[in-house]
Amino acid sequence: MTAVAVRPRAPARRWPRLVWRQALLYLAVLVVLGVALFPFYWIVRTSLETTAEFSQGVSSLLPPHLTFQNFVNVFKQEHFGRPLLNSAIVSLATTFVTIVFSSLAGYALARLPVRGGGAILGFILLAGFFPPLAMVGPLFLVYRDFGFIDSIYPLIIVYFVYTLPIATWLLKNFFAQIPKDLEEAAMVDGATRLQALWRVVIPVAVPGVFTAAILSFILAWNDFTFAVSFITSSPHFTAPLAIVNYGQSQFQIFYNLIDAAVVIVTLPVAGLVLLAQRRIVTGLTAGALK
Question: Dihedral angle at the C-alpha atoms of 182, 187, 190, 192, nearest 10 degrees?
């Protein structure tokens, strides 16, 4: 009979070390989450206070009386619905245009024998890290000459330039992980390369496309720099730009109204990310392992 090697058990004294390591890891995670979420908690707390309670100052971590009147006043008195609609139009249009062009660019870089593809991808990444403030001056001069100032639709072009690099980089990495056999089989059946892209590759690359779409939407939805530079009249304000003018009087700033508007703007993005977090993680980690 052959002897079976028995793996020696780990010493019992190692278990307390493992328990302490896990406890310290969880504690560190809780500390990071607390630091990250506390500002948003404080915004929510302030938005649920009345003006009188807010004027008296902070006396506890919880508001004395919960009220949703600030949210009602934001829509009734400040007419916040119009800026929300403007932001939705610009963000959705930017997302759509970005996904179309970044899919074509990412697929070309991943599949076609493009000369200098690495240099092109590096330039795209460099453009993605270009500071937005450096683009405001030249773009303002161009928009002024074309008469694009004080309109929400030219913002789509600005946001498209801002969101295209990151979306192209994400989709290029994701397309590179998809087997070429899928599109080659489609082209054997008579499909063109473009038809193979939209009917075969894009459905398989849904996590990457979804991630690029969400990131593009968030960048356009939260933008303040370009909006304040190119929009001048309140009917054309986007939501972040409109928040700046809310809750202000000659002698006091009502931060409870401002924070209520901030919560309203944040909830759509937070809900979208929570619902699609698995697809986002899958899209962001594409190309990490081969």
Answer: 120
Contact status, residue 205 vs residue 218, Cβ threshold 8 Å: no
Q: What domains lie within the chain, and their CATH numbers?
A: 2-70 (no CATH), 78-289 (1.10.3720.10)
Q: State mean pLDDT over 86-107.
A: 93
Average pLDDT over every residue of 124-134: 78
Residue 89 clears pLDDT 90, i.e. is over it: yes
Residue 248 dihedral angles phi and psi, to the nearest 5°: -115, 135
On the 0-12 / 13-18 / 19+ scale of CB atoms within 10 A, 126 is exposed
C-alpha 56/C-alpha 51 separation (Å) is 9
Contact 93, 152 (CB under 8 A): no
Tokens at residue 276, please?
A: 């699609």
Which tens digit of pLDDT belongs to each residue from 44-81? 888 888 777 777 776 677 777 778 888 888 888 778 88
pLDDT for 211-231, tens place per residue?
A: 889 889 999 999 998 998 899
